[in-house]
Protein: Cytochrome c
Amino acid sequence: MRRTLAASTLLAAVSLSSAAFAQTPANGDFRPGPEKPLVQKNCTACHVATQVTAKRKTAEQWGETVEKMIGYGAKLSDAEFESVVGYLAKNYGPDSPK
Structure:
């Protein structure tokens, strides 16, 4: 009985981790989406992707972070700012998978 329970538990854990792994691109790369090239271009000008993709922030927190990066010299129009913040909040928000 224990062996069956242990095998079932292990199988469930592997299935869950495989599903989570499938949602996270290799090497911490940004998740797919129409805004990915814009985010990738602007964020990786100074950071490795994992420095961004490892974070989990609300839209407000991402907005503050992007605003801070603009203060450091990132160049984004108002529309690009909204796109970047929306993409980050959707893909790297508190409830998004790691």
The domain at 25-98 is CATH 1.10.760 (Cytochrome Bc1 Complex; Chain D, domain 2). DSSP finds five helices and no strands in the chain. The first helix runs from residue 2 to 23.
